[in-house]
Amino acid sequence: MLKSETDEITFKNRNNYKTDDVKRGFEDGHIDSKILIFRDIIPMDNFIEHSTMLIKKLFPQWRHLKTKEFTDGITNQLILIENIESKERVLVRGFGNQTDLLIDRNQELKSYKNMIMLSKFGFCKTIYARFANGLVYGYQEGIPLDENNKKIAILIAKRLASLHKIQDSSHKEACLFKMINKWFAQMRTLNKLTLDELSSLEKLIEEANWLQQHLKTIESPIVFCHNDLLSANIILQENRNKLSIAVEFIDFEYAGNNYRGFDISNHFCEYAGFDCDYSLFPDDSFQKEWLKAYLDEYNGRESSDEEIFEIHKEVTNFTMASHFFWGIWARFQAEISSIEFDYRNYGLKRLTEYFKLKSNIETCNNK
Fold this sequence. Notes:
The protein is of the alpha+beta class. It folds into two domains: 6-139, no CATH class; 144-366, Aminoglycoside 3'-phosphotransferase, Chain: A, domain 2 (Alpha-Beta Complex). It contains ten helices and twelve strands. The longest helix has 32 residues, at 305-336. Keywords: Kinase, Transferase.
């Protein structure tokens, strides 16, 4: 177990950070009962150096460190820091420029409490510290998913079903349109939007209202969702003899109560990647086999054809929500983010796919 020497650090540096006693009551015993809370802000333009300084403050027994920067994320910065002597490793995640506008940072406290809750169920590693614009937490060993065969897809389906069975103690309100409406409100305050862009924004707000009303006609339970289950957030783990394989999920920054149909359809959309190659989107046959594995695991019994038909209909409709959600997210990111990524083009592709799918669904409904 990583030792943070919490008490010693706290009393020597009381003005710099405080401890947050979190009552967990976990039986596994590997999670510390205290999480250090730093008031420091780590600058994004020199993130590795300042992250290393933070880790040396957090783990003073770590003398020689090795760092690795992960570049897959397009919202935040992520650094792996390893103690060369002990081989212990932690991750330092820094939230990108103004991402408090994108991910509800009022929910930041809930976010790390979610991670504590997820640790209890074996979905998340220990959190060691929070700082003003990020987290320090344990590293999940394994290999990021780079190809998705049917065997792995079924494992993902079962693992997601297990995640969806977790009971969040907070009231069950879906976060989908709450987040979209927040982004709309923030975009309205941006002085650099042209009149044409403001007009386009108002049309998107009208579209969001239509989508919300439409999805009310689709029965989809509110469950605890990952909300960002792309391949980079899925880790493959093999046992020592490589006789079996398991999957784990990482990066729960968008996690929270949401519609089941959104979480599943969003995962299917991620098959297309950031290039938005929708020729890679799972076909109906693949989806139904995936959904059967999901339902069997979730319900603890064999699923009927009717149940599979209904959840497939649910997921198809919520695929629109996935495209719309990330389309608006990307449009907002294009205005505020300092991270190098073509958000405008990505957002345009997602919204184009949304309108295409909407047209297909309306055509089918009118037949």
